[in-house]
Amino acid sequence: MPPLSDKFGRPITDLRISITDHCNYKCVYCRTGNEGALYGDLPFADYLRMVRVLVGMGIQKVRITGGEPLLRKGVVEFIRELAQLRDLEGEALDLALTTNGHLLPEMAVPLKQAGLRRVTVSMDAVDPDRFARITRVASGFDNVLAGIRAARRAGLWPLKVNCVLMRGFNEDQIIPFGMFAREEGVVVRFIEFMPLEEDRLWSPQTVVTLDEIVKRMAEYRPLVEIPRERSETARRFRFDDGVGEIGIIAPVSHPFCGHCSRIRITSDGKIRTCLFSVWDHDLHGRMRNGASDAELEDYIHGVVQKKEERHHIGEPDFVPASRTMVHIGG
Ligand code: SAM
Question: For the chain, which residues make up each domain, given as ranges?
Fold first, then answer.
């Protein structure tokens, strides 16, 4: 079978797999302030089989996410197993993980030793009080900062720091994050707020757009755009003096669906072909019913043909996704 691609000819090379939808933070743009419902998670052996089958079909990049993936006991062993897999060209996978960073101070070295290449840490303010207001966790800031530094020291590199900007919460953090990127030597990536939160706070006015971010940052130092790979979600910029890089992920104001190379597996084993899908596809159900690897491949192939052409955020016909971000895996 040729490597996986969808009916629009987009190669599918990138998998995001959620290993839990449980999280120890309650970020305002993602979760409700209470514990909320859980879809649950699966044994690591089941995730490993799904990834193995998908890697045999053309997946090259695997990102582990959640919920908060570092809460899952056994995650280091899981990464060690994933690091043994080889893609269709015989290369090791590009293995990365997205985390809120809270547990990174003690886990960065074991994760690196297990074969993880890179981490992305979510951090939505460089001001501790603002950070607490957004995450609704009183004492997280110091852990996350220590986690970023521990990951750097461990060689989890290049290190990206994701900041979701939401008007009324943290748009004044743009310039401080520019300084942070330069001082800490990390790539700070601003993400436009998408309507995927549990509290349904999104409106077009809450989105701080790419154009606004670039303009605001220029009041500190001008940015120069640098080339990026076609399937990369972030537009990349460096400062005019060459020190420091920032990225802007702008799915709302500058959608990049035409280059989307991703599919997702939720913590309960469902395939999602788009963040904004209104349904998901029960891969784990087929495994539970005894499907062979070849049968799983056939099923995945059919599911990928249903991948949506694009999202409809902000359009009159927009229908909210059937799951919120914490239950999808960002
Ligand atoms: N717990 C991990 C973390 O904090 O990075 C991984 C899961 S989190 C759902 C993955 C990413 O999704 C984070 O960078 C988070 O900021 C982003 N995210 C969550 N809700 C979002 C939203 N409504 N719009 C844009 N990004 C969002």
Answer: 14-327
CA of 324 to the centre of ligand 1 (A): 10
Query: Does ligand 1 come within 6 angstroms of the Cβ of 237?
Result: no
Query: Average of pLDDT values for 163-177?
Result: 97
Structure confidence by residue, pLDDT tens digits, 88-115: 999 999 999 999 999 999 999 999 999 9
Ligand 1 atom closest to 328 (CA): 9
Q: What is the mean pLDDT of the chain?
A: 96
User: Alpha-carbon distance 73 to 96, whole Å?
Assistant: 18
Ligand 1 lined by 326 (C-beta under 6 Å): yes
What does residue 133 show for φ and ψ, rounded to 5 degrees? -65, -35
How far away, in angstroms, is 330 Cα from ligand 1 center? Answer: 5
What tokens appear for 224 in the block? 């120069």
CB of 98 closer than 6 angstroms to any ligand 1 atom: yes
- What whole-number distance in Å separates Cα of residue 59 and Cα of residue 300? 12
**C-alpha span between 141 and 130 (Å, rounded):** 10
* Homologous superfamily, domain 14-327: Aldolase class I (3.20.20.70)
Reported as a pLDDT band with limits 50, 70 and 90, residue 155 is: very high
Q: Is 18 in the pocket of ligand 1 (CB under 6 A)?
A: no
For residue 67, report the distance from its CA to the centre of ligand 1, in Å: 9
Query: Across the strands, what pairs with 262?
Result: 14
Per-residue pLDDT, averaged over 294-301, amounts to 98
